Amino acid sequence: MKQVNRKGFTLIELLVVIAIIGVLSTLAVVALGSARTKARDAKRVADIRQIMSALELYYNDANRYPAALTAGQAISTNGVTYMNSVPANPTPVDSGCESYPNYTYSTPANGSTFTITYCLGGQVGDIGKGVRTASQNGLTQ
Fold it and tell me: What's the half-sphere exposure (Cβ side, CA atoms, 13 Å) at 56?
């Protein structure tokens, strides 16, 4: 009787490879989710710092802070634009920050100070997670 030489993989070998690929892809998805959260928080801090810089430039020229800020609108006065478009809070909002889906800007009627409230899902550098504020004095730790 002649022996047939078959080439290929057995079913068990294929199942082992599929299982390994499944485990590796699960780990990659979990790591990617964490990286996305960190990236959103880093963007929030960068956005707030850019807004603060634009507000300080505005204050130097106008001797007051603007009465209101709206995402997507410019920060400008007397024909000078300090920021073309105020950034919006990145989505999705992180767990624990559901009450702060947007950056919140406030200033008193005389425009002498400002406060921007935002929320971080995790620590960014020396800035802790949770609800944070920024003002003309800097970012809260």
Answer: 11
Q: Indicate the CATH number for domain 11-139.
A: 3.30.700
DSSP structure string for 55-95: HHHHHHHHSS--S---TTS-EEETTEEEESSPPPPPSSPPT
- Cα separation, 111 vs 89, whole angstroms: 23
CA–CA distance, 115 with 41 (Å, rounded to integer): 19
Question: What are 66-79's pLDDT values in tens digits?
Answer: 999 999 999 999 89
Where in the chain are the domains?
A: 11-139
- pTM check: above 0.85: no
Full strand arrangement of the beta sheet holding 130-135: 104-106, 115-120, 130-135, 138-139
Please enumerate in sequence order all residues whose Cβ is within 8 A of that of 79, keeping only pairs 6 or more positions apart, or say none: none
Assigned token pair, 40: 């959103």
